[in-house]
């Protein structure tokens, strides 16, 4: 976890473009199995210390974008065929996932992926395996993780398989934090969780961001929740960014309200209908 100072809400806001980019994704194209074109020129920018949401429905390309950043595409027979991805100005497309962890980028994959037969604490400790700063430093991080996730401390000796979905999601995030990341790529943290637990998880993300300065890029279908906690959002449709903006502006946007927040537009129930398609075309124009 970074200890970099982080602006508080009492300080005047710095314009987003003036903040240094931690991550810059520029016009990437991703193809699976040499033929399936999934990302068609995605660009996004994550300033240091921000919480940025990647939004969109099923199959929009959110997970693929995160995989491209953390270099986990090869295992899926996917590759970045165009564009560039930079971390603090350094090209990272050819780095291995382990090298990215060393540079402070860790992904929490969709579906949590805890080691079912290990205890919560053993799961957390696996997240520290790349660290070389010694047992005492790792123990301090573990205590910090427990301070953010008191539920995990209570369940530290429980086998992960017998913990709740919410606890497993917390365990997956806690395990990522054990690597002392600068940036966490969080894939669909709300998936399959009760609303109250989703809220609890997002509150912890906000706390980590504010107190530790950890940067988050989170892929989420739960637009309402994500836009309550993110600073900025990108909406993906069919492998393209169709809209981006400050979270508040997106929450107030008529199209986002209608198609992603389920408010208003009574005659148009889905972004798949004809009128929305025209509107999408306008976004893409
Ligand atoms: N390993 C793969 N091989 C081939 N196609 C894939 C692979 N992974 C994803 N895709 C395809 O890429 C597209 C984008 O998928 P992706 O998982 O990135 O979307 P998503 O926005 O994260 O959706 P979801 O919220 O459903 O996970 C989909 O059409 C999907 O079928």
From TrEMBL:
<dbReference type="Pfam" id="PF00005">
    <property type="entry name" value="ABC_tran"/>
</dbReference>
<keyword id="KW-0472">Membrane</keyword>
<dbReference type="InterPro" id="IPR003593">
    <property type="entry name" value="AAA+_ATPase"/>
</dbReference>
<keyword id="KW-0067">ATP-binding</keyword>
<keyword id="KW-0547">Nucleotide-binding</keyword>
<dbReference type="GO" id="GO:0016887">
    <property type="term" value="F:ATP hydrolysis activity"/>
</dbReference>
<comment type="similarity">
    <text>Belongs to the ABC transporter superfamily.</text>
</comment>
<dbReference type="GO" id="GO:0005524">
    <property type="term" value="F:ATP binding"/>
</dbReference>
<feature type="domain" description="ABC transporter">
    <location>
        <begin position="23"/>
        <end position="263"/>
    </location>
</feature>
<protein>
    <submittedName>
        <fullName>ABC transporter ATP-binding protein</fullName>
    </submittedName>
</protein>
<dbReference type="InterPro" id="IPR027417">
    <property type="entry name" value="P-loop_NTPase"/>
</dbReference>
<dbReference type="InterPro" id="IPR003439">
    <property type="entry name" value="ABC_transporter-like_ATP-bd"/>
</dbReference>
<keyword id="KW-0813">Transport</keyword>
<keyword id="KW-0029">Amino-acid transport</keyword>
<dbReference type="GO" id="GO:0015807">
    <property type="term" value="P:L-amino acid transport"/>
</dbReference>
<dbReference type="InterPro" id="IPR052156">
    <property type="entry name" value="BCAA_Transport_ATP-bd_LivF"/>
</dbReference>
<dbReference type="GO" id="GO:0015658">
    <property type="term" value="F:branched-chain amino acid transmembrane transporter activity"/>
</dbReference>
<keyword id="KW-1003">Cell membrane</keyword>
């Amino acid at each position: 976890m970074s200890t970099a100072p982080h602006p508080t809400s009492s300080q005047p806001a710095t314009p987003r473009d003036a903040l240094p980019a931690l991550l810059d994704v520029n016009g990437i194209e991703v193809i699976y199995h040499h033929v399936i074109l999934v990302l068609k020129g995605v660009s996004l920018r994550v300033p240091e210390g921000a919480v940025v949401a990647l939004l969109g429905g099923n199959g929009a390309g959110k997970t693929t974008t995160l995989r491209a950043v953390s270099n986990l595409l090869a295992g899926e027979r996917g590759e970045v065929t165009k564009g560039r991805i930079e971390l603090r100005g350094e090209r990272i497309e050819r780095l291995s996932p382990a090298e990215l962890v060393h540079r402070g980028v860790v992904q929490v994959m969709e579906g949590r992926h805890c080691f079912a037969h290990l205890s919560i604490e053993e799961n957390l400790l696996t997240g520290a395996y790349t660290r070389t700063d010694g047992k005492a430093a790792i123990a301090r991080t573990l205590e910090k993780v427990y301070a953010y996730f008191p539920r995990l401390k209570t369940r530290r000796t429980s086998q992960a398989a017998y913990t709740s979905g919410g606890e497993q999601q917390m365990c997956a995030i806690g395990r990522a934090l054990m690597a002392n990341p600068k940036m966490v790529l969080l894939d669909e943290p709300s998936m399959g969780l009760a609303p109250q637990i989703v809220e609890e998880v997002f509150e912890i993300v906000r706390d980590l961001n504010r107190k530790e300065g950890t940067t988050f890029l989170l892929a989420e279908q739960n637009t309402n929740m994500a836009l309550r906690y993110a600073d900025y959002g990108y909406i993906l449709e069919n492998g393209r960014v169709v809209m981006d903006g400050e979270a508040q502006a997106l929450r107030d946007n008529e199209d986002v309200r209608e198609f992603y927040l389920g408010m208003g537009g009574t005659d148009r129930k889905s972004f798949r209908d004809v009128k929305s398609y025209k509107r999408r075309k306008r976004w893409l124009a």
